[in-house]
Amino acid sequence: MRTISTACAPTPKSARTSVQHGLTEAEAARRLAARSPVPRESSSRSYASIVRANVLTVFNLILGIMGGLTLAFADWEDALFLGVLLSNSAIGIVQEVRAKRALDRLAALVRATGKVVRDGQSRALSVDEIVVGDLIKLAPGDQIVADGIVLGAADLSLDESVLTGESRSVSRSPGGKVLSSSFVTEGSGSYEVTAVGPDSYAARITGEARRFRHPRSPLELALNRLLLALLALIVPLGALTGFALWERDTPLREAMPTAVASVVTLVPEGLILLASLTFAVSALRMARRGALAQQLNAIESFASVDVLCLDKTGTLTEAGLEVVRVVPSAGVSAERLTADLARYAASTPSRNATLEAISKSFASEPATVGRQVPFSSRRRWSALELDDRLAVLGAPELFRLDGLGSVATDEARRGRRVLAFGWAGARAEELSAADGVPGDLQTTGLVILAERLRPDARETVAFFQEQGVELKILSGDRADTVASIAEEVGLRSAVQARDGSDLPDDPGDLRKLVLETAVFGRISPAGKRRVVEALRDAGRYVAMVGDGVNDVPALKAARLAIAQGSGTQMAKSVSDVVLVRGDFSSVPAMVAEGRKVLRNLQRVAKLFLTKSAFATFLILSIGLTPTAYPLLPRHLTLIASLTIGIPSFFLALATSSGPYEPQRFLREIARFAVPAGTAAGLGVVASYLFALNVADLPLQESRTVAATVLLVVGLYLVLALEASAGRRGVAVTILCVLMGSLYLLVLVVPWAREFFALSAPTFGIVGITLAGSVIAIAGLAVTDDRFVPGRER
């Protein structure tokens, strides 16, 4: 473990913080005005990074060089692809900026705050409002937002892993130092601020990532491999083309369009921009549903998830609890038990949902507390020292229940939360580090609480099961309690409930257990992490939904971490996605959105790569021969825009159905693109050579034939790939008709036809075009039924 040292200047005694009241508002305002503003941490990509990602790419560099050479040595009309490049980049930047602004607005709602005491009143303030000398209170899950010195502590433990890399919690007592960016895992306390913002220890560390980061996603890795493969193809093919032109002593004004046309066709200039645009739009849609994406690959993760781990509280059930009844032990009156519970709930400094529910049902004045043992999921009980005795509240199996055992079991099976209450003579300081309850503990009764099912819990569970996503419930409650709730919401495998307190040590046995079991009760934070890791090691793509400190280890281990907006700052900080509104029922819509986006992106990527495969065929068949190249750069820009560029912007965000398999991304693209590009090349080359050498058509008319055949085959591929029964098929057909009509408009309007160096249709052009198109389409249809329009995918 790395040793942490800080140099904090001592606060003058005259200005020291009052332990009870903190600074006065006037003194805090004076200190705030005297210091420089604290810069707010960026919650999303900066504007500069958005521009760089959309403009400064390898392919844009290649196209920019080709465009510059064209403008310098050839007709400027053949540099039309530069306009497409600029417009695509501009659209991508605008959409990502829109998404950034929406995410920034959401991030403001979940930004870390501290419970600052001023003039004796506690309120939440952001880091930029906190000053040196402020008094900040701490509770489990709170983030340390500034460096400081501990003034008070009750079993205070911190997670400093983001600073030290050490996963074990460290204890802090009065006089100890706390460092910004660490978190409270157990206990409570207060500290005086000694450094804020840029002056804090965390801000001075270089090379350390504040947030937990995942490795690149399968799609990101696949796209990177694809780009490297294309670059490896472009360099030798471009060199071969250039060498062939140089060997033939081709004039520069004629050689330049040929070289540019061959290289430009190889480049999938809109694919990366389209992926960036698609993710930006999806992040914007998620933001409108109240979800803050803190990781760039969160959309893909939603699409890839096949196991979802969650706690029932706040997801399947409402976050709040209500007391159903109290059951006193023999010889104890209900009135006495109720009064003791009310006094305990009113007096404890560390509140949770259970104590809030008890306090709401039974009112009492707070009593003077000596020491306390705060609740922890590891210990599963808490205690307060009241009137020289120890009041203990915790899991009923830790208590001697005598005649109450059957009541606790029956209520737990009904899905109720059961807690036992009792008194002991031991002092709290003797138990602060102990795991077991005091040996002389006398049980005085049970308190029964109930959770309400969320209205949409059944529909949410049904959606995941229909989508093939397994649900695993990891809860600190009894296994039969959790199983009862799970069965009520329709979880098919809920009967497979297991006590998580005795997970197997052997990795193989644990992996088998977690694959077969749907419900784990009485599971510790470490146990949750082990379950998630075992699922991940079994090859599953695991998502974890959590909101408390006990969920953080599992959130860090999961491939997709989802935190409730009402959860602790610690849970939100390590998560990929924060449900700002705390609405778990919005997750199915996000899964559907992610799968739709990735499925569509995979489909349109096939169109971009078909163009590259076609270019490869064209270079190898004609580009290396003395025959004039069949297409000019302006032809390729026009055809690519009508058959790929414009359709892909609509199709990438359209409603779709069918599977998405991220592991087979490149294979699926290649299986479509290679035969499709080859067939298109055969049709274009055959019709072009026939028109040029057999029909003796002029070069411009022969190139018109080649361009038209490429357009027909390209629109056919859009139909084969995207058209299906129902509304989507009709919409895609209409889109293709519109694109074909735009091309016909170019052919019949004189100035447009002249600009693109095309010829007006004649019987010869039409007849040869039809023949070339039939050759290509027939070759596709007999190769694989994937190239037949109307097949469901």
**Distance between the amino and carboxyl termini:** 53 Å
Relative strand content: 15-25%
Uncertain residue ranges: 1-16, 205-213
Number of DSSP strands? 21
Largest sheet: 8 strands, mixed
The radius of gyration is 33 Å
Q: Write out the strand line-up for the largest beta sheet, numbering strands in chain order.
A: 8-21-20-19-9-16-18-17
Total count of helical runs of at least 4 residues: 26
Helix residue percentage = 40-55%
Assembly state: single chain
Structural class: alpha/beta
Q: Write down the overall mean pLDDT.
A: 79
- Shape, please? elongated
Features of the shown structure:
793 residues, alpha/beta, 8-stranded mixed β-sheet, 21 strands, 7-stranded antiparallel β-sheet, 49% helix
Task: Provide a descriptive summary of the structure in words.
The chain is α/β, with parallel strands linked by helices and 793 residues long. It has 26 helices and 21 strands. The strands form three sheets. The chain has an eight-stranded mixed beta sheet with strand order 8-21-20-19-9-16-18-17, with helices on both faces. Strands 1, 2, 3, 4, 5, 6 and 7 form a seven-stranded antiparallel beta sheet that branches. It has a six-stranded antiparallel beta sheet with strand order 10-15-14-13-12-11. α10 (298-304) crosses α20 and α20 (587-623) packs antiparallel against α21.
